[in-house]
Specification:
Layout: H1 3-12, E1 17-19, E2 27-32, E3 38-44, H2 46-62, H3 76-90, H4 93-110, H5 120-134, H6 138-157, H7 184-197, H8 202-209, H9 215-218, E4 226-227, E5 232-236, E6 246-250, H10 253-263, E7 274-276, E8 282-284, H11 289-299, H12 308-319, H13 324-331, H14 336-339, H15 349-359
Antiparallel strand pairs: 1-2, 2-3, 4-5, 5-6, 7-8
Helix pairs in contact: 3-4, 3-6, 4-6, 5-6, 7-11, 8-10, 12-13
């Protein structure tokens, strides 16, 4: 950019705002506070600079003192560490492990950046690039966006940041209408494939299939969750806000067998989805894709993921005539709208539609005549 062009651009900026370094699109403001001292602040985007300058001028007119002290410069890596510590104090280990995985990806590219220089545009560009590179679906992209937002929300609470550049970003629309469930033949083939390759994971497969648990719920399951008197399995749920932290599912014989196999040799209260090591101790069995995906290939099953076992559980209940309201309860859905996606699988739905439509022709028509149509 020529010097003349640069000067013209600088002259176009509102008084009290300038760009430093030139061409960086990082803007600063200068103003005089209530005590008469001249101050400068780094604001990031031009919009933020205009808003901040207006606030500072209003403070001076009203005679109020400055309410914000200058924020020190922290790298994003420092803020990520704070976010992880916050999550560890609030969430279960499985959720924290998933969050750590996402934040470490972010740290690889932005860990050394000064956090307050990161703009919303930087976050959007990173999300779009990663979505293309890794083939993310909208749901995955939204989870990473939420991770970005958490980092800055915690930083604001810790007074290490003033603004959250991820705030206001719209989530991508997720397609939650997908329903894929195992047919009886697919279940037989998949069970055989798991027994050949990874027999120790057959109980976990059966536990998921016969309970409808989310993966995170399954890995929170503990020895003692199955009550032998009532035959009900307690599921520890976290997605139902302001509700019971547990829901209950009647245990089928196959679910009981899976539970007993996983609970054998463990004390009450220990994690259920673990295996006892030959030399003592237990090892968590909370990894799925490394064993489940090869078994899907061996069984010749396509377009199927672990979460579809949950769809299989719900679909079979609906196809068996279970009321939608009861299915919602067993699935742990917050609203019936989430369960309605399975409604078309009800065996009575089509016949009811036919009966209602054909019933029109049996009603008394104007003139006192009654017309009956053959079915």
């Amino acid at each position: 950019m020529h010097c003349g062009a640069s000067n013209r651009f600088m002259n176009e900026l509102p008084r009290g705002i300038w760009e430093r370094p030139r061409g960086s699109r990082v803007y600063w403001i200068r103003y005089t506070d209530t005590s008469g001292r001249r101050r400068r602040e780094k604001c990031g985007s031009l919009t933020n600079a205009k808003q901040r300058l207006a606030i500072r001028h209003a403070e001076r007119v009203s005679g109020e003192k400055l309410t914000h002290e200058p924020v020190k410069s922290f790298t994003l890596s420092v803020l990520i560490d704070d976010a992880i510590a916050f999550a560890e104090a609030q969430n279960n280990p499985y959720a924290v492990k998933d969050l750590k995985y996402k934040l470490e990806r972010i740290r690889e590219d932005f860990g050394r950046h000064i956090a307050k220089t990161i703009t919303q545009g930087d976050i959007v560009k990173w999300l779009e690039k990663q979505a293309v590179k890794h083939g993310w679906k909208p749901a995955s992209r939204n989870r990473y966006q939420a991770a970005w937002s958490l980092v800055f929300r915690v930083a604001i609470q810790n007074k290490k940041a003033r603004e959250n550049p991820a705030h206001g970003l719209r989530h991508k629309r997720e397609d939650n209408q997908r329903i894929r469930y195992l047919t009886p033949d697919e279940e037989r083939r998949l069970t055989e494939a798991i027994m050949v390759r990874y027999p120790e994971y057959v109980p976990i497969f059966q536990l998921s299939l016969h309970s409808g648990m989310r993966a995170s719920e399954m890995f929170r399951s503990k020895v003692g969750d199955l009550d032998p008197r009532t035959g009900l399995l307690a599921i520890h749920q976290t997605k139902v806000r302001h509700g019971d932290p547990r829901r209950y599912v009647p245990a089928t014989p196959m679910l009981r067998a899976a539970y007993d196999a996983l609970a054998a040799g463990k004390a009450r209260g220990e994690l259920l989805c673990t295996k006892i090591e030959p030399r003592g101790g237990t090892k968590e069995m909370n990894r799925i894709s490394y064993w489940f995906n090869p078994c899907l290939q061996d069984a010749g099953i396509e377009d199927f993921v672990w979460h579809d076992l949950r769809h299989t559980f719900a679909s079979r209940l609906v196809m068996g005539g279970m009321p939608i309201s009861a299915v919602a309860q067993y699935m742990g859905h917050q609203s019936l709208q989430m369960t309605q996606r399975y409604a078309h699988l009800s065996p009575e739905t089509d016949s009811k539609v036919r009966d209602i439509m054909m019933g029109y022709y049996t009603r008394v028509l104007p003139g006192g005549k009654k017309k009956v149509a053959a079915r």
